[in-house]
Hints:
Elements: H1 2-26, H2 32-40, H3 47-58, H4 70-82, H5 85-90, H6 94-105, H7 112-117, H8 129-148, H9 154-180, H10 184-193, H11 199-215, H12 219-244, H13 248-269, H14 280-295, H15 299-316
Helix pairs in contact: 1-4, 2-3, 2-9, 2-10, 3-6, 3-10, 4-11, 8-9, 8-14, 9-13, 9-14, 10-12, 11-12, 13-14
Amino acid sequence: MKTDKLNRTFISIVLVLIALFFFTQDAFSWGYATHTYIDDHIGKGHRVKNSDEIYGSIAPDMFNYMFDNPEYLAYLSYQTHNGFMNVWAEAKTGREKAFGYGFVSHNDDWGADYTAHHSGITYGQTEGYVIAKANILKPTMLGILAELAPDYPLDLLDEIALEVSHELTEYAIDILMKKLDPMIGEKIALSALQRNPQFPRLLVKAYAYEFSAYAGISYPEAAYLINTAEKGFRESMVFYGHALMQDEETAVYLISEQTAYIAEGFLGTYGITLPEGTDLVPLIISGINQAIDICDDNFADEIEATIYYVDQQMNANGITY
Length: 321
């Protein structure tokens, strides 16, 4: 009986890992503030279109936290990071093109995310800047996870520790972006508050049909899931932007509070149930602050190099309007 239970548990873990494999290749790269900063320095300077570009640049991550359905999460996150041209193809109006421009700039194949976790320019050339920095933080996170889940397979825990370190590094760089642009939080919040009401329709046109076929659901159901995810994401970006408007200590605390809730869902997807009474907030604060120290010396050089790289790639691939 005990063996059967262990076998079922192992099979469940394997299935979840398969579903998450593609997701974890694309998620947790450059953070929202970093994508905002990059797109604020390419594309159009017109205030409205610039704001649309910014929201477009962070929107590909809108499905990253659908932990209640890992298969949908993996599929949709892969599409937004690797099937990014769908949005550009559907964009017709000036504001839709602005959104599509930002959306494409985020991509994992040759966009901003490429330098984050494939090939950094000034650091982490063989693995990506964010992953290289996350690997420095990983031993600390692995030790914490091993205490929280002592019976979990260590090799799988090592992979989870990298993803946790990856996300904390992403948030740390977003905090550091305040040094380069003290208004970065306001730009994120305003881009979400002022986002064109046509953008969700654009996302539905780009992804709902293929998603419905993949998931075995109706087109209206697929459209509803996309619209719901965008709505929740938009609200979270208003909060995130306001968090970054605060002083550094307060911003780290607010982001850590939000991340603690997300982390429970993330760990739960891997089958990890935290001990009763576990407070993740202090652990996340400590992790973000450590990641800030790890990245502070050279993050700005990598961001500036990425801006030049993305601008060149967008022109080379004909993404202009």
